Amino acid sequence: MVLTKTIEASIQKHARPFKNSEELTSALISEVGDVKYVLLGEASHGTSEFYTNRTEITKKLIVEKGFQFIAVEGDWPSCYEVNRYVKGYETSYSSAKEVLQAFNRWPTWMWSNQEVLELIEWLKEHNETQETKVGFYGLDVYSLWESMEAIISYLEKTQSPELDRAKKAFECFEPFHRKPEQYGVSAALYGEDCREEVLALLQDMLAKRTTHTHDDEANLNLVVNALVTANAEYYYEAMITNDDQSWNIRDTHMVEALEHVSNFYGENSKGIVWEHNTHIGDARATDMARSGLVNVGQLTREKYGADNVYAIGFGTYQGTVIASTKWGSPFEIMPVPKATKGSWEYYLHQARLGNSLLIFNEENEKEFAETIGHRAIGVIYHPEYEHMGNYVPTIVSKRYNAFIYIEETKALTPIEVVNTII
């Protein structure tokens, strides 16, 4: 009870209630300062308010702070098509909805939704008036086959002498029929992997690549697709043998991809990252550290300095969410039950301030230094069992620079996709 009252009092003292996104973004923008990266989290991959508030924060960072790109927890090839669309490059897509419908890897709703559609439409319109156009990129490692196809397409367009060698190297993956779990089992249990030949190809190919003036991002696209191909091969094998290692491979890859995008925009580039709280909140402030896990939040702070990274977490007390009951299943609108008693979200509710923003700083960080359960909902969710595994032990003031609390949230709105791939 003493702990409860202490946390409630600290929240009431330091939290800033907000009525709308304008109040929220205005309060945040002055706190961000001149950082290189702003990391925007979410407590689920299916909550409308997390997406809409990140959108408004992102717009303000672009317009008022000069941020040049958005990097998300999505596949590079699909996100690169969005990038081409919002920058006005030649593309086969005629609308934002059409380009988002091409996000055909499960869980499709993460990026193919109405909330992201509105952001993409805004980016397209904004870029039409800008000399330096804002980009949109995917940092994730899952798109092994799509990235290989993109490399082949690049080599064909450039009439590269490496084309036949690449086709032969990638044939190694054909027996697995675009099923990464099949490849992972084969590589892990039978030693039948494609790594040596593919890595040698990619190293030679990148060393010999040619700069193409007709598309100044062609080389960036090639480099990151090559990075995905190399790391995805390693990731899928590790999934079978060591899940902790596969997590670290994935988050390390995302930081590597982020660095390539940043380098493309120059030494003083500034980027906005959209990922789940479990990726953007510093792993050292959670029980992940005891398992040897790292994440994007930790690695970027270590690589660029804590003063150059501003991490913002999100959470809710109750509502609804889009998720599935098992991997590859159709999505459902599920209830988000009231937060478990004694959790971070429970205390925010008990403070009775409604939607609010907490800024952590030297003045108050010790008041939020207790380890406390903090809700995390993934693409697989069972609300009836969430008290058994959906709360991450967290020192909130060390995990984030700021935290946005929404009292009650609703599920986001997916848009129809085509040719769904699991």
UniProtKB/TrEMBL annotation:
Pfam families: Erythro_esteras (PF05139). GO terms for biological process: response to antibiotic. CDD domains: Ere-like. Signal peptide: none annotated. InterPro entries: Emycin_Estase, Hydrolase/PRTase-associated, UCP036794_erythomycin. This is Erythromycin esterase family protein.
